[in-house]
Write a structure and sequence with these properties.
- The chain is of the alpha+beta class.
- It has seven helices and six strands.
- It folds into two domains: about 140 residues, no CATH class; about 80 residues, Alpha-Beta Plaits, CATH 3.30.70.
Length: about 240
C-alpha cells in the first residue's frame, strides 16, 4: 500500500496535467475546457488508484484484484463523454479534437494513478505540442489554399449559381456555402444576404478580373476575402 502523501501527490499531478491541456482548449473556446479536462484526468487517476490499492486484502492475489478491470472501463466509458463534444452542422463536424483530448486525458490520468509519471507527463507535453504548434503548422501549410469569400448582395433566385459559375471559371473549388439573410429596414421588403463561400484556391494566382466579374453579377454589392481589410465595393 502506498502512503497517503503518494495518493495525494498523484491526484494533484493528474489535476495539473489535465488542467494544462484544458487551458489550451479553453483558450480556443472549445466545448470542453479547463474543468472538464481536470475532472476527466482526476477521475481516471482515482479509478486507477482504487483498482490497484482499494481492494487490498479482499482479492485473490497480493495486489488485491485485477487493476486492469476498472482501468479498462475508463478507456471504453470515456467515449460517451467525448461524443458529447462532437457537433454536426450540415456537412461540418466540430469537436473531434476536443473529444480526442478528453480521451487522452483519461489515459494520462490512468498513467499517473499507476505511478507511471514519465509516461503521463511526456504524453501531456506531446498533447500540448500537438494542439498548439501543430495546429498552427496545419493552418499555415495544409490549409493555406483554403479561404472564405464573403459576398454581400440582395436576395434573388439563381444568385449563388451565377457566382459559382465565376468561381468555376477561375478554377476555384467550392467546399462549403453558408447563407445569412437579414431584413433591410431602409430598403423595405428587401433582404440583405451575406453568402460565405469556403473555397480551395488554385495553385496559380487568381486573375485580377475575378472581383470585377463577381461585382458585375446582378444583385452583388460587395465581395471580400475574410480577413482582408480592403473591399471590392461597387460604390
Amino acid at each position: 500500500m502506498i502512503s497517503d502523501w503518494e495518493v495525494a501527490l498523484r491526484l494533484i499531478l493528474s489535476a495539473i496535467a489535465g488542467g494544462v491541456v484544458g487551458l489550451e482548449r479553453e483558450a480556443n473556446n472549445r466545448p470542453a475546457g479547463l474543468r472538464t479536462h481536470i475532472l476527466v484526468t482526476l477521475g481516471s487517476t482515482l479509478i486507477m488508484l482504487i483498482s490497484m490499492y482499494g481492494f487490498q486484502g479482499l482479492g485473490a492475489n497480493n495486489n488485491g484484484g485485477e487493476p486492469a478491470r476498472l482501468a479498462a472501463q475508463v478507456v471504453s466509458g470515456i467515449g460517451f463523454l467525448g461524443a458529447g463534444t462532437i457537433m454536426r452542422t450540415g456537412g461540418n463536424i466540430k469537436g473531434l479534437t476536443t473529444a480526442a483530448s478528453i480521451w487522452v486525458c483519461g489515459g494520462i490520468g490512468l498513467a499517473i494513478g499507476n505511478g507511471y509519471y514519465l509516461g503521463g507527463f511526456a504524453t501531456t507535453i506531446i498533447v500540448l505540442f500537438t494542439l498548439g504548434s501543430l495546429g498552427f503548422i496545419e493552418e499555415k501549410v495544409f490549409k493555406s489554399q483554403y479561404k472564405s469569400l464573403i459576398v454581400q448582395c440582395k436576395e434573388r433566385s439563381g444568385l449563388i449559381g451565377d457566382i459559382g459559375h465565376i468561381l468555376g471559371k477561375h478554377n476555384i473549388n467550392i467546399k462549403d456555402i453558408k447563407v445569412n439573410s437579414e431584413y433591410d429596414d431602409e430598403a423595405y421588403e428587401e433582404y440583405v444576404t451575406e453568402i460565405r463561400f469556403m473555397v480551395k484556391l488554385p495553385s496559380k494566382p487568381i486573375s485580377q478580373s475575378f472581383f470585377s466579374e463577381i461585382l458585375n453579377v446582378h444583385g452583388v454589392e460587395d465581395a471580400i476575402w475574410e480577413g482582408d481589410l480592403s473591399t471590392a465595393c461597387l460604390s
